[in-house]
Amino acid sequence: MLALRPLHPLFVAEATGVSLAEPLTAAGLAEIVAALDRFAVLVFPDQDLTDAQQIAFSERLGPLETTVKAFRPDHRARLDLHLSDVSNLDENNAVLAADDRRRMNGLGNRLWHTDSSFKAIPARYSLLSARTIPDAGGETEFADLRAAWDALDPATQARIAPLVAEHSLLTSRATIGFTDFSPEEVARLQPVPQRLVRTHPGSGRRSLYLASHAGSIRGMPLPEARMLLLELMEHATQRQFVYTHRWRRHDLVIWDDRCTLHRARPYDMRQPRDMRRTTVSDQVSSLEQAA
Ligand code: OGA
Ligand code: MN
């Protein structure tokens, strides 16, 4: 039986009473999905999972994304294709050098974002497992985009509800000055459209859909679009909407990418931080979830 303990007034619960290493019943799975519809972020402590167990559990929630590994043929992948390597480690488990392309790209996770909004069909859920954590720092923060929507005044809600933004990984990386992409990558990472406001099918709640990947809004002059995106981001990440997760080893945190933002916080990058993410793809574009 899943036991839930709220960790924040608006969203996020700790979930205990279940071992994710074992195959779940359909009823057990439905309990987790219902809890995600309500809390948007679930923290499962003490889930000592192998990669195969993490993948097996994640697949029960839907089809998994595969990662485009470090984008370079000279970098061998440390992990299975179904695991996103969110660590600061190379394929030999050595800490990455400061100028390593993988580390520079990974620093983009410190910008508020939601996973894979730069894909035409973005992520539904992300599952992040803490295998090795640093002594201090390296928290992950989450923001509730449903609550952020609810808190907007009605005139703003009416104005932004029909808008469609364009998301690209190139946009978020350019923000931190990381532009080392090949012509092939630039072609592959062209912007995709996403609704700025969407309805969450599981809860029926409306939600902003924001990310550092968003760089423009269809039919709006660029400076006006960027200012609107910046203002909404500032609004949505006010402290009352934010939960800070302080990791313990073997925490598994699941979040709903359709209605939350998250970002990594700094730590001493000479220490290993080994985090492994499985990502469940959505089935539809946000364009089909009009507010
Ligand atoms: C991710 C991510 C943040 C962190 O796994 O998608 O953004 O704290 N991680 O590592
Ligand atoms: Mn992320």
Strand count: 15
Strand % is 15-25%
Mean pLDDT score, rounded? 96
CATH architecture: 4-Layer Sandwich
**Assembly form of the protein:** single chain
The geometry reads as globular
Biggest sheet: strands side by side, in what order? 1-2-3-13-5-15-4
Q: Give the termini separation.
A: 34 Å
- The CATH class designation is Alpha Beta
Q: Tell me the number of helical segments per DSSP (H or I, 4 or more residues long).
A: 8
CATH superfamily: Clavaminate synthase-like
Structural class, please? alpha+beta
Unreliable segments (pLDDT under 50, ≥5 consecutive)? none
Please indicate the count of domains. 1
Structure, explained:
With 291 residues, the chain is α+β, with helices and mostly antiparallel strands. The chain contains eight helices and 15 strands. The protein has a single domain (3-288), classed as Clavaminate synthase-like (Double-stranded beta-helix), CATH 3.60.130.10. The strands form four sheets. Strands 1-2-3-13-5-15-4 form a seven-stranded mixed sheet, covered by helices on one side. Strands 12-6-14 form a three-stranded antiparallel sheet. Strands 8-7-11 form a three-stranded antiparallel sheet. The site of N-oxalylglycine has 10 residues, from strand 5, strand 14 and strand 15.
